[in-house]
Write a structure and sequence with these properties.
This protein is an alpha+beta fold. It has helices spanning 10-17, 24-31, 34-37, 76-96, 135-139, 148-165; strands at 39-42, 46-50, 60-64, 101-105, 122-127. A hairpin with a 3-residue loop joins β1 and β2.
Length: 166
């Protein structure tokens, strides 16, 4: 049997075992430790963060700052900001990673697959032709091709270049 080494995931595996009280999205927002929490950028009403349990390389979450469980509970300004950040996220990923396409989705409620059903968030998953191989089917293993720290740095750099141009 071959070994697939991913030592950078150990801190997240340990995190799962801990019983964390409260909302993870609210907690990392308040901590203001963006690099450590993989927050890429903040807007007035939303923020962009790496998914620490990604489905694919570059998997990001667009999150409203206010703790709400449904789009209908956001104000118009919050909803506009959230969707503007979603559009900005796609452009950022286009510059930084150049994917061939995207999966974009919202899971509303635990039955729909929401891991954190109390705090709305939008998944943005970049996709490339041929990015899914035999590993998930045969070994129940997904290979993520880039570390979270490297990806965070790359997206932050792309965002700073965009801000200098604007």
């Amino acid at each position: 049997m071959d070994n697939l080494w991913a030592p950078w995931r150990l801190p997240y595996i340990k995190l799962i075992k801990k019983k964390v009280k409260g909302c993870v999205f609210c907690r990392i927002l308040k901590e203001r430790r963006d690099r450590e929490n993989f927050i890429v950028l903040r807007t007035r009403h939303s923020y962009l963060v790496l998914n620490i349990f990604p489905y694919n390389n570059g998997h990001l979450l667009v999150v409203p700052k206010r703790h709400v469980s449904d789009l209908g509970k956001l104000s118009k300004a919050e909803r506009d900001d959230l969707l503007d950040l979603l559009e900005r996220t796609q452009k950022l990923l286009d510059r930084a990673l150049k994917p061939d396409g995207y999966n974009v989705g919202i899971n509303l409620g635990r039955a729909a697959g929401a891991g954190f059903p109390g705090h709305l968030h939008i998944h943005v998953v970049p996709r490339w032709a041929g990015d899914v191989n035999f590993m998930p089917v045969l070994t129940n293993t997904k290979i993520i091709s880039q570390s979270l720290k490297t990806l965070h740095r790359r997206l932050s750099d792309a965002n700073q270049r965009r801000n200098r141009k604007a």
